[in-house]
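Troubleshooting log. The previous run stalled partway through. Resubmitting the same two chains, unchanged.
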Amino acid sequence: MKPRTFFYFLREALRGLVRNRVMTLTALGIITIGLFLFGLFFLLTANLHHLTVLAWDEIEIRVFLEPTVKNPEKIGAELAALPGVKSVKYVSKAEGAASLEKMLGNQNLFLEGENPLPAAFNLSLLETADLQSLVRLASAVPGVEEVVFKQDFVRFLEIAIRLIMVFGLALLFLTAFAVLYIIINTIQLTVYARRREIEIMKLVGATDSFVRWPFLLEGIILGLLGAGLALLILKEGYAFLIQKIQFYRRFLPLLSGPELELILMAVLLGMGLFFGGLGSHVSLKRHLKV
Amino acid sequence: MLIAKKLTKIFNNGVVALDQVSLTVQKGEFVFLVGPSGAGKSTFLNLIIRQEVPTSGLIAVNRQNLAYLKKREIAYLRRNIGVIFQDYKLLPQKTVYENVAFALEVIETKARLIRPRVYAVLELVGLLNKANLLPSELSGGEQQRVCLARALVNRPLLLLADEPTGNLDPDTSWGIMELLLEVNRRGTTIVMATHNREIVDHMRRRVIALDRGKLVRDTPKGGYTLET
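Second attempt completed without errors. Output:
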């Protein structure tokens, strides 16, 4: 495409948006609301997932060793190599006793040399860990006496993570489709309002692509503007929320920071661009048959 | 310039709009297409600009069979055919100048050529002093002249006019007809569908009469009816 032609399309797209202000503002409002809702669900799902992952990080599997074990390092290395293990920490008999004493608030619980606690390894888990098989594999390592973990809590978390992943993704997909549907219908209205213009363009000899480009650019501009507005509202709203719950953040550590903003920006702008362009393309198809 | 052979158009609802119509229009001719409403006049014009496709038979413009045109070729065909409509089909938010220039912009005419060509054609139709007005600020006759200017600005070989005087008073209609005659004198072939008996009878040009889709009369220098 010649630069002159592209600038003609861009000029026509901008003129179209300005000349049909009412339709433009209506479409922009609807696209903004749609993308805002998508962004909201995105943040909600991301935070729920983040919270469950944090809880998962807190899970530890304690692997008690047989009292006769002489070389715990070797067992530690074997445990660290198991699939799903993030890190391994050795807890000696003395450390185990100190930890228990600290927990119970009772000094000198055991006399020196009478400490019955076995040495152990604390395993922290990767998000992808399959707990059942990990416990089975850890139990099978020579020198391991018993593997202990908070079974009910872990089960609950496993189910919660799976549900959030499945429902969160389903919700995001559904919202994305709903937003696309709304955008297509909205742009269809703007195209319908200008069907006469399209008809005349076709009758005086414009090619389909010549008719299509300004509308495509209009859709893309509307999509990007809508995404920008939705982003602005989400960013300010989320910052306000974070500030409001500052005090509770120790218990409710919400996601924040430039990385989250960047991801949200990429997702919403990408959706605005793609949905705006696709909306125009689909809406135009019927009217090009002149 | 224009050839139709056994041209038939049957719409999906079963209505036969054209039935085995055969005719030839030579370059530079001025032809009236007459007949009652529903006779097939507009369908015939729509087939020429490939807004409709024939059910059977042949229609060719400039020796080009329109049945086999690709999408892009349809656009190029239309660049050689100017069309004026009873309802003008002007863009209400564009000025007179922009409405005419639009026809050149959409076929990617070089920018430096657009302005002189638009002003030349506006001068021809007598609207040079109204170039910056919107269609809503013009009379019906003036709007039809803008439509004519838009049809002519691309220097078409063939000009189709579908009831161009249908919405105009007699004086204004004669003004439009004089312009069409002038355009025809300059070499453009004109096919004009009309109900205007007075104009057809007065101008004594070739008359092709359609009735219920059939060609019922083709008279050189004819009248609106056989008797006139």
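Takeaways: The mean pLDDT of chain A is 84. The radius of gyration of chain A is 30 Å.
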